[in-house]
Amino acid sequence: MAAIMFEQNDAETMYNAFINVFLTRPGGGDVYYKTAINNADRGGTWSGSLDILGTQDAYERTGDPEKKDLVNDLLTTWLKYNPTPWSWDGWNDDIGWFTLALIRGYQMTGNQPFLDSAKYGFDYAFGRGWETQHNDGGIWEENPEYSARENPPRQATKEALANDSLGKVACMIYQSTHDQGYLEKGKQIYAWVSTHLFDSTTGQVNTGVDQSGKVDTGTAAYNQGTFLDYANLLYEITGNRDYYNDAKRAIDFGRGKLTVNGVFSNPAGYLNTWADEMARGAGHFVRDNGLWSEYHSWMKQNADAIVQNRRTDLGLTWNAWAQPTPGDSALTANNFISAMAWLQFTPAMQPNEIGGIHTITNQGNGMAIDSAGKYGNGSPVIQWGKNDSLNQRWQLTQNSDTSWNIINLATWQSLDCPGGKDADNLAIVQWFSGRGANQRWWIDRQDDGTYKIWNKGSGKALDSANSTSNGAALIQYGWNGSSAQRWLLQ
Q: How far is Cα 2 from Cα 386, in angstroms, rounded to an integer?
C-alpha cells in the first residue's frame, strides 16, 4: 500500500477538522475553542491564545473572509473574559502569547481594541519585566514578586519564552503604528537575547539564564521557532543582514538537532504545543526569502508525517508527528495546533519565483515601484530609480483564489486600487491590508519573462505611463501589452 502523501487540500481539511472538534458557539455572541476533546470548558488564557494563533495561520494562508470573521469573534470573546489589566498574571510569557494573538489579530481585522490591548500588554510586561541589575537586561519569565509567592518559592529567571514572544509583539506593533519606540524596544530585547541566550556558532536558542548568570542550555522547538520568526521580522523591518544570518542559523539548528530523522516529534504529556512557532518561523523565513529549493523537501517531509499519523476519526495529528496520534479523549486543543500550523505554511508543490520579497521594476523605464516611505491610508505609490531601499521592497503572498497581496516593507501597507474603480489613469495608493478585491492582484508571467500585474477588483493593469521622472505616479490602465505594463520581479 502506497504511503499517504501531503496534498494541498490537507491544510484546509485539517483546519476544518480542528473547527469541527473544538469550536464552540454557546450563544450570546461567544465563540471559543473548548479545552479538550472530552472537556467542553472554554480554553484558558494563554492556551486559548495559542488556539487562536492557529486560526490566524489559516487566515494568513487563505485570506478567506469567513476566517477573518472567526479571528475577530474569537479575540472579542477572549477579551470579554480576560479584560485588561492583567496584573493577576505574573508570567510575562503568558502576556507574550496574549499580545501576539491580539496584535496579529489587529493586523488581520483592523479591530482597534485588539491593538489597544496588545500595546497595553507589551507596555505592562516590558515595564515590570525588563531590568538590568541581573544579567545586564532581559525580561523576567515570571516577575520576582510573583515567583517569591509560589509554593514553594522559586528563583526568577529570564527566558527565551518571554523575551522572544514579547520582542515579536514590539516589532508587530511597530509595523501597525510606525511608533519608533516599539521598534527600538524590539531591537533592545533582541540584542539581549542574541548575546545571552543564542549561540551564534551553532544556532541554538537556550532556555534561559538564572540570576547568577548560569545558562539553562535546554532546547525546545517553540523557543527555536519564536526566535527564528523574531529574527526574520527584524530583518524585514530593518534590512540588517545580521538578523537574516541569525534566522538562518536558527532554522538549520532546528532542522538538524530538534527533529527525529528530520521530523518534529515530541510525545511528552506535559506539552501543550511544540512546533507551532517553528511552523510560523520556518514558513515566513522560507517564503519571504525565496528559500524553497533549500527547505521545501524538508517541510514536505514533515507535512507527509503529519497526514500519515493523523487520527482517522478526527482528522487531527498530535505533537509527535512521527508517531500515530493516540485515541486519547483527554488530548487538548493545544496538542493539535502545531501540526495544523505546519500544514498552513507548507505548499504541496515547490512554489515558483513569484512569492517572497521583491523589487518590482518596469521593463520600459527601468524604474521601481516605491512607497516613498509614506505611511497612512491613501498615501501615494510612486516610481523611482531602483535603489533597493525598503521603500522599494514588496512582500508578495498568495490568497486561496491564487491572487496576490503586495505589501511594502517600509510602510507595511498594501498596494491598493482605490475602491476597485476601473477608470484608466487612476493612481494606485497604499492602504491598511484588508485583502479585499481592490488589494488582490493577478500576476501573470509573459513570454518574455516579464509580468502583467492586474487588479482583481478593477481588471486593470499596473502601468508606468512611460514616465521617467522620479516621483511619477503609478497608475492602472487597460491591458495593451506595452513595456509600460510589463514588470520584472527582482
A: 51
The rounded distance, in Å, linking the Cα atoms of 485 and 318 is 48
pLDDT in tens, 189-216: 999 999 999 999 999 999 999 999 999 9
Total residue length of the chain: 490
- Chain centroid, CA 307 distance in Å: 23
Cβ atoms of 387 and 368 within 8 Å: the answer is yes
Residue 451 and residue 38: Cα distance in Å, rounded?
Answer: 52
User: From CA 438, how far away is CA 456, in angstroms rounded?
Assistant: 6
> How far apart are alpha carbons 45 and 108 in whole angstroms?
21
Compute CA 189 distance to the chain's CA centroid, rounded to the nearest angstrom: 19
- Residue by residue, DSSP assigns 384-447 as EE----GGG-EEEEE-TTS-EEEEETTT--EEE-GGG---TTPBPEEE-----GGG-EEEEE-T
| Confidence at 2, pLDDT banded by 50, 70, 90 | low
Beta-ladder partners of 442: 454
343-371 mean pLDDT = 98
pLDDT digits (tens, 9 = 90+) for 132-180: 999 999 999 999 999 999 999 999 999 999 999 999 999 999 999 999 9
- Give which of 333, 325, 245, 327 is closest to 289, Cα–Cα: 245
- CA–CA separation, 116 and 119 (whole Å): 5
pLDDT score of 388: 92
| Helical segments of 82-210, H only | 92-109, 112-129, 144-147, 160-177, 180-196
Give the C-alpha distances (Å, rounded to integers) separating 87 from 73, 125, 157, 243, 392.
25, 9, 19, 33, 43
Measure the CA–CA gap between 250 and 257, rounded to whole angstroms: 10
d(CA 297, CA 411): 33
How far apart are alpha carbons 176 and 194 in whole angstroms?
Answer: 25
Residue tagged 473544538 (cell numbers)? 22
Measure the CA angle with vertex 237, ends 122 and 234; round to 5°: 65
